[in-house]
Write a structure and sequence with these properties.
With 534 residues, the chain is of the alpha+beta class. It folds into 2 domains: 4-217, Beta-Lactamase (2-Layer Sandwich); 365-534, no CATH class. The protein has helices at residues 4-28, 32-35, 59-62, 65-76, 161-169, 174-199, 204-228, 283-298, 340-359, 423-429; strands spanning 40-46, 51-54, 85-88, 100-108, 114-123, 151-155, 158-159, 233-241, 251-260, 263-267, 319-322, 374-381, 387-394, 432-440, 454-461, 465-470, 491-495, 501-504, 507-512, 517-521. The strands form 4 sheets. Strands 2-1-5-4-3-6-7 form a 7-stranded antiparallel sheet, with helices on both faces. β12 and β13 (387-394) form a beta hairpin. The protein is globular, with a radius of gyration of 22 Å. The model has no long low-confidence stretch (mean pLDDT 95).
């Protein structure tokens, strides 16, 4: 018999391991993208590879990380020993998109038996490819950077320096990449040490592992209770990605959520075929969006008394995912995937929430910005001895209003949970000046509860560089709900040094000379409820 108080204690203990891993990674990292924006995630897994706990990091990372761990176990598992770690980023072998490097480490107990796994994932600001930042407007994955299958980065505690040399030879700003990667190694070592300390505590290894399994069962029970509270039936929704950067669009994203007897089938049949551009998203991303949407709605009841299922493998046991092969959510190799992780993931959440709004309208908000509004910039910095640099950021937007209140303004929403890069850090680390960084008044959708406003961010280049925009919701607005108005679409612009302005498409690569500026205006969130609604 599991004591519920003891179970809650272990829930927080496991989560604390992942949180401490994240803090170690952040403090040891080199790049502003990880140290300041906190574009990383950490999690704890049992010996079978089932996720036990995760830190409150980035949903698109964490929901997809179990497939990375599974790939590491499948390809390297039988040969793994103490002190080993497996590195991967290949979207066709457990990864998501190439900048996300995942490092998986087995944890062996004092008797030498495999007891746990820990994993860290960090978005590296560049891993090669056709444009700085490794989020190009690509046509095939070969253009997106260095692709790494599950390989041994650390063997018996020693880093494989030849593998590191290959990685650094294929990316811009190699000093940053090495520092960030070794920070992940340190984070994994700390996570393993903390789990062994937990096993050596008063309850021993048997108690820790018993409560890990019990946490999975607890999450399953909570998710089944939520699904049983929804009337059985099929709830469908569709939305669109505007274009893939290669001339195709709009691209339909469709889902049918079928609820029956405390279980759900999430079926993306009817979603557009894989595209020529970079918006293809693999099954790991579809799984991640599904996990996020169902957990968020399960804990969003009007009374606030409902327990949200813990973020572990048990919460997904009652949910079956259907992804049609050859579609946007299950592309065939070598389809380009750079934007699937950052943009298509957001639209997957939009359609999932749209479907669940019909099933439980008192729990679901209107659409949020629906784009991470990705900006990558790179070049040579004459002020730092001619070193190459690569910078990446996502720009927040407006949150959708909900049945309970207005949407928040100027925040990261849904599948991203990063911070911004502070102006002072950005201007210190790179040859840019921030000319504008403010809210975008009036961009939130009107309604009884208005949507949140987007952001205006404008960066002026102080050295020649190349910038790439990978954005969505520049034509198709975030939807409102229950009579609320849609949020305003975003806009992208190029402001030349002479003051002339050019509107840029949602996906573009441009050359910037000193004095030129790139401006990103992000979408607002949709409103909830008509003007006369109570």
């Amino acid at each position: 018999m599991i004591d519920p108080v003891r179970l809650e204690v272990y829930r927080h203990r496991f989560a604390a391991v992942a949180e401490e891993m994240g803090e170690a990674l952040r403090r040891a990292s080199f790049s502003p993208n990880i140290k300041e924006r906190r574009d990383y995630s950490c999690a704890v897994f049992d010996a079978r590879g089932d996720m036990v706990a995760q830190a409150t990091h980035i949903p698109v990372h964490l929901g997809s990380m179990p497939l990375s761990v599974a790939a590491a176990i499948e390809e390297q598992g039988p040969d793994l020993g103490p002190g080993d770690m497996v590195l991967l980023n290949d979207p066709y072998r457990g990864g998501t998109h190439l900048p996300d490097l995942t490092l998986v480490a087995p944890v062996f107990d004092d008797a030498g038996a495999l007891a746990w796994f820990v994993a860290s994932r960090a978005h590296h600001a560049d891993v090669g490819g056709m444009t700085p930042g490794s989020l190009p407007i690509s046509r095939e994955i070969y253009q997106e950077g260095l692709r790494i299958p599950p390989v041994r980065l650390v063997r018996g505690g020693a880093v494989e320096r030849d593998l590191v040399r290959v990685l650094l030879a294929n990316c811009r700003a190699p000093e940053e990449r090495e520092g960030d990667l070794l920070a992940q190694v340190a984070a994994n070592r700390l996570g393993g040490a903390r789990l062994l300390e937990l096993e050596r505590g008063p309850g021993g290894a048997a108690e820790a592992r018993l409560h890990a399994r019990a946490l999975l069962d607890y999450a399953e029970r909570l998710m089944r209770a939520f699904l049983r509270a929804i009337p059985d039936g099929e709830y469908a929704f569709e939305d669109f990605l505007e274009d893939d950067g290669a001339g195709s669009g709009p691209l339909a994203v469709r889902v049918a959520v079928r609820i029956a007897g405390g279980e759900a089938t999430v079926d993306f049949s009817g979603t557009a075929p894989q595209c020529r551009g970079c918006l293809n998203a693999n099954e790991a991303i579809a799984l991640s969006a599904t996990a996020y949407a169902f957990r968020a709605v399960a804990g969003a009841g009007a009374s606030g008394a409902e327990a949200q299922p813990p973020p572990n493998a048990g919460a997904l046991r009652p949910i079956r995912l259907v992804v049609p092969e050859g579609s946007l959510v299950a592309p065939r190799f070598p389809a380009a995937v750079a934007g699937g992780n950052v943009e298509t993931s957001q639209r997957l959440v939009d359609v999932l929430l749209g479907a669940l709004a019909a099933a439980c309208p008192d729990r679901v908000p209107a659409a949020s910005a629906g784009s991470m509004s990705n900006l990558t910039v790179g070049g040579v910095d004459p002020g730092r001895g001619g070193r190459t640099f690569a910078y990446y950021e996502t720009v927040g937007g407006g949150a959708g209003a909900s049945p309970r209140g207005k949407g928040a303004s100027g925040i990261q929403t849904h599948m991203t949970n990063t911070r911004n890069t502070p102006v002072e850090v950005l201007e210190h680390a790179y040859p840019f000046r921030v000319r504008q960084y403010r809210l975008r008044p009036g961009s939130g959708g009107a309604g009884a509860h208005p949507g949140g406003d987007g952001i205006v961010r404008e960066l002026v280049a102080l050295a020649p560089c190349e910038a790439t925009l990978l954005t969505e919701r520049r034509r198709l607005a975030p939807y409102g709900l229950a009579g609320g108005a849609p949020g305003a679409p975003g806009r992208n612009g190029l402001v030349r040094a002479d003051g002339s302005e050019v509107e840029l498409p949602a996906k573009a690569t441009v050359r910037l000379e000193p004095g030129d500026a790139i401006r990103v205006e992000t979408p607002g969130g949709g409103g909830f409820g008509g003007p006369t609604a109570p």
